[in-house]
Amino acid sequence: MMRGLLLGVVMTFSAAGAALAAGVDRQDFSQIERGHYLAIVGDCAACHTLPGSGHEMAGGRAIETPFGELMAPNITPDPQTGIGAWTDEEFIDALTKGTGRGVARLYPAMPYTYYTKLTRDDALAIRAYLNTVPAVSNPVQADQLPFPFDMRWTMAVWDQLFFKPGPFHPNANKSAEWNRGAYLAEGLAHCGMCHTPKNVLGGDKTGERLKGYALQGWFAPDITNDPRRGLGGWSVDDVVAYLKTGHNRTGAATGPMSETLNLSTSHMSDPDLKAIAVYLKDQAGPQPDPPPAPDRAMMTTGAKIYADECSSCHTPDGKGIPGLVPALNGSPAVQQVDPTTLLRVVLRGARSVGTAPAPTAAAMPQFGWILTDDQVAAVLTYIRNAWGNAAPPVSAGAVGKARQSFVERSD
Ligand code: HEC
Ligand code: HEC
Ligand code: HEC
User: Fold this and answer.
1) Whether pTM exceeds 0.85
2) Closest ligand by atom to 185 CA
3) CATH number, domain 176-281
4) Do domains 176-281 and 296-408 have the same CATH topology?
5) Which CATH number does the domain 296-408 belong to among 3.20.20.20, 3.40.50.2300, 3.40.190.170, 1.10.760.10?
């Protein structure tokens, strides 16, 4: 049934696919199916499909980088404007070595620094799947970067500094499950692209892998097993539930993570999600120094604002309402050193992701127009240090800056 359906699509839309369909056998089909799954794990569509265009993988989405915007190219089988004319070797090299066809180097906005860990088999399966998506003619000019980052050759230098090419090497001292999780999280699923701190040139700080990073006006938190800021307080099942549904006992996903959830992690198999969780829970972070105790007057003001404006939903003890309103008490999201996400959520509100397994999404109201900079600073400092939480205070100046940056950004 599935097979007939898929081949129907292949034959209607894609010349390359039609050729494939003529000679397709069971093994090709299982490779295509596997490639489809792997393309979801790698979240190719997040960048290569323009939302609302209806054209899967046809490119044209602007990808924000620290240096400016890049357009994700067309990777449908169209021979002129897509990658239909590419050989399998060229395709594998693009994914695992960051080389292009006709251009010397790809920019690392394409996650080849992670995809380099892919096995050849998995890369070929992804290619087999891409051969079956409808060919769309859509010329895309990738480079939109300002000088000096518009010079692709500079990327060769960048690669020398920050790119360690090469396949995944399993750790013989760990279980098969752990190794599967490492292969996915450090490779195809490129979790570190958002969660690993970057240096000024956008290279991963490998010594701080998965310790949290601010991007696109959000903060992707520490997802090591750090007890306060990371996943130390979450069980493997909590991590799996979050990646599957966007919710768990304590947390609810918003921002860029909700897109990753919708397009990618919520479609991953339960064993793969568990493998990722087992791997993350084994990433011990060094214990952070406890932050200095916050100003008492600020805490008193914050407690009062919390009681008036927040406690009806988040409850006076900060434990929230399971499945509906996230806990602030003990929440790693609340205790990240960088308060970007908190500022955003409180000033602008948030609606958490609704995924198929958990379709109802509750909303966090906007307080930007109700509370002054001083009041937002006080209530955030309070929730970061009440109930045994501990994190650096938030200043009124930081609130003002965040307000300004949200005015400048449209998303
Ligand atoms: C985070 C965004 C992002 C994700 C995820 C992503 N790509 Fe890309 N990709 C890009 C960008 C941006 C470029 C263009 C880079 C450049 O021009 O230097 C690119 C370039 C490419 C190219 C080279 C195409 C050309 O015409 O030069 C291929 C092939 C490709 N991606 C395949 C994939 C596949 C397959 C996946 C999923 C496994 C994927 N990409 C996931 C952003 C992404
Ligand atoms: C496109 C960027 C992006 C990618 C890719 C991404 N994340 Fe996230 N992630 C975020 C952001 C931003 C948040 C914060 C969301 C929030 O505060 O609601 C987050 C939150 C999380 C959380 C919740 C942590 C907490 O303390 O609340 C977990 C767990 C997580 N991500 C795991 C992963 C894993 C595993 C992967 C790879 C499979 C991944 N993420 C890939 C951006 C990303
Ligand atoms: C009407 C109910 C309601 C009120 C009132 C409310 N919240 Fe929320 N809050 C929510 C919901 C629902 C979410 C989850 C939405 C999401 O993550 O997209 C949330 C999310 C949050 C988060 C993000 C937590 C995380 O794990 O990412 C923070 C921080 C937060 N609220 C703080 C506050 C503060 C501070 C106040 C008072 C100034 C407040 N909230 C008032 C319902 C409420």
Assistant:
1) no
2) 2
3) 1.10.760
4) yes
5) 1.10.760.10
Query: Measuring CA to CA, how many Å separate 136 from each of 38, 43, 54?
Result: 21, 19, 11
Residues 346, 367: contact at Cβ < 8 Å? yes
First to last CA, the chain: 41
Give distance in angstroms: CA of 48 to centre of ligand 1: 7
Count CB atoms within 10 A of the CB of residue 183. 23
What is the biggest distance separating any 2 CA atoms in the chain, rounded to whole angstroms? 75
- CB contact at 8 A, 325 and 333: no
CA of 411 to the centre of ligand 3 (A): 19
Locate 276 and state its tokens: 């990722």
DSSP labels for 143-212? Answer: B-PPTTTT-TTHHHHHHHHH---------TTS-HHHHHHHHIIIIIT-THHHHS-B-TTS-B-GGGTTS-
Residue 352 CB partners (closer than 8 Å, separation 6+):
246, 247, 252, 253, 254, 258, 326, 361, 362, 363, 364
Q: What one-character-per-residue DSSP string does 340-407 give?
A: HHHHHHHHH-EE---BTTB----EEPP-TTTS-HHHHHHHHHHHHHSTT-------HHHHHHHHHHHH
Give the residue extent of every domain in the chain: 2-162, 176-281, 296-408
| Residue ranges lining ligand 3, Cβ < 6 Å | 251-252, 254, 309-310, 312-314, 325-326, 328, 331, 333-334, 342, 345-346, 350-352, 362-365, 367, 379, 383
Q: pLDDT truncated to tens, each residue of the chain (411 aa)?
A: 233 333 333 333 344 444 455 455 666 899 999 999 999 999 999 999 999 999 999 999 988 776 677 889 999 999 999 999 999 999 999 999 998 887 778 888 899 999 999 999 999 999 999 999 999 999 987 766 655 555 666 777 777 778 888 899 999 999 999 999 999 999 999 999 999 988 777 788 877 889 888 877 788 899 999 888 889 889 999 999 999 998 776 666 777 888 899 999 999 999 999 999 999 999 986 666 777 888 999 999 999 999 999 999 999 999 998 878 889 998 888 998 889 889 989 998 876 555 555 555 568 899 999 999 999 999 999 999 999 999 999 999 999 999 988 766 544
